[in-house]
Structure formats: structure tokens, C-alpha cells
Amino acid sequence: MEKIFSIKMENISLLGALYYPVDNSLFYKAYRYSPELFHYNNGMLNSRGQSYYENLNCNQIIHQIKILKNKYLMVPYMAAEKIIKYVIVDHVFSKLVRLADFIIGAYDSFESILFNYIRAINWCAYTIICFFQGKPLPKYTDELEGISIVPNLGLKFPREQIEADNHFISLSSVSYLKKQYDYIVGIALGGISCAAIASCYLNKPLSIIKISYYDERNIGESIPLYKNWLDKGNILLIDDNCGSGATLNKAKQYLHAITDCTISTYATELHWEKFFRCKVCKHQIKHLS
User: Fold this and answer.
1) What's the rounded Cα separation, in Å, for the pair 261 and 178?
2) pLDDT digits over 233-257, tens only?
3) Proportion of the chain in helix, strand, coil states, percent, rounded to 5
4) CA atoms in the 13 A half-sphere facing the CB of 40
5) Roughly how many angstroms between the first and final C-alpha of the chain, as a whole number?
6) If pLDDT is split at 50, 70 and 90, which confidence band does 230 have?
7) Cα dihedral across residues 107, 111, 117, 121: positive or negative
8) Does this model's pTM top 0.85?
9) C-beta of residue 191 within 8 angstroms of C-beta of residue 176
10) Residue 210's beta-bridge partner residues?
11) Contact 154, 59 (CB under 8 A)
């Protein structure tokens, strides 16, 4: 693959955080500017500190996003500016994905509300891609201003983030895609972040479908879908990882039933343990995506 990344793989943790020794001057400056966003352990700095994984309700998450937005706008011109801004956007991106997953599962009519979330998610995804490719980061205009939640759902708690948001892996994998796709569909929760990276990299519209075997929604009920395509074309259906293949297959069957588009499935990672138990040992695995 052509050399398109400005970040070395050795500086990306298994779960996707930036990972540098404390004696790296640029990263240490970023840490000193916003220590609450980082985690320090045994001489190493990790860009996803405790605040990345906080279990907050919807109102609290939106409040945190606004704080992070203001922090992004106030980053001074300095050598570590791009690192600081990337870390802030990575935290915002995670929170937006969690909210989008919650909204599509909780609202009866979510199209107008999710439109603003998709816009914000796309801005974050584009910023992330620019960072990894060493390009100038985009300026913030008003991409985060339209996110909201209805009052009676503000105190509800979205699902916690799934450990499958390695943007480096997502961007690396999508750079190999050769076929022309017209639309990108991400499977909530884990597949949204991967699909958003693919959507921005390929410059194609992003949609979201919610199918889950491990949260509060019964897989047999009607399937929530934020649709952003016409009835003709090629859809790339993306999940973050694949084990049994049940989630991707269920989503593909549903999309086949409601559209005339050609549908291809794609997962950025293979869940080896689940795959081995399903395909090799022939275990019947239920309630797993």
C-alpha cells in the first residue's frame, strides 16, 4: 500500500488510542495542555483517558461535547496543536456515535434529529482522516451546533462505547477498497465510526442501521434505519468486527427487502474467537453480533 499515513503503527494502541512515551516532547505538550483527556501509566501517555469512557447520560454527553468544542476553538498556535485538536475530536467523535446509536433506537421519528448528528460525525471523521494523512485540519464552523435531545430522554444513558474504534485500522482497510460504492451504511453501534471514516474517505453519503444482539433492542422487532440513499446503486454495509456474521447477514437481508440497491458487506476486523467457535467448532452462538 502506498505510504499515505503520517502516524506510525507503533504509536497506535491496539484499541486505537495514540500511544507515546512521556519523553516525546510534542505529545507531552499536548498532555500538559489537556491532561484530563489523557491517561498516564508507567512512562507512557495514552490519548484516551478516563473522560473517553465515562458513563454519562445524554444531557451530560452533550454538555461535554460543548466543552470540548470550546476547547478545540481555544487551542493556541503551537507545535502540538494538531495533536491536541485530534485528541479533542476523537473524544467528541466517540460521544456523537454513542448519542446517534441511542437516538436511532429511542426515537420513533429520528430522521430530522439524526441529520445534524450525521453532519457532526462527518466533520469529526474528516478531521481524523486529515490528521492521519498529515493534512491541515479543517476549521470548525458550526458542525456541532445542531445536536440535541428531547427533554424526556436527556437523563437516559446511551450504551458505553465499544472497543472497536481504531481509526487507523478503519482508514487503512478502506484505502484498499477498489469497487465503486454509492452509499455507505454503518451498523450501530460499533460500525458507525468505521462507516463514517469510509464515508468521508470515499466521499459517499452515510446512513445508519441499528441491529444488535447484545443491548436492549430485540432483534426480532422492526429495525431502525436512517436512510440516505436513492433506490438504485451500490451500498457498502459496514460493521466494526465480524464473528458469527449474524449481524451483517441480518442487516443485508433487511436492506435487500426494502431497496433495489446492490449490497456488499464489509467488516474492518475479524473476531477470531467467535469465528472459530461458529465456523470450526460449530457452536450455536446466540446474542452475539
Assistant:
1) 18
2) 999 999 987 666 788 889 999 999 9
3) 45, 15, 40
4) 11
5) 30
6) confident
7) positive
8) yes
9) no
10) 188
11) yes
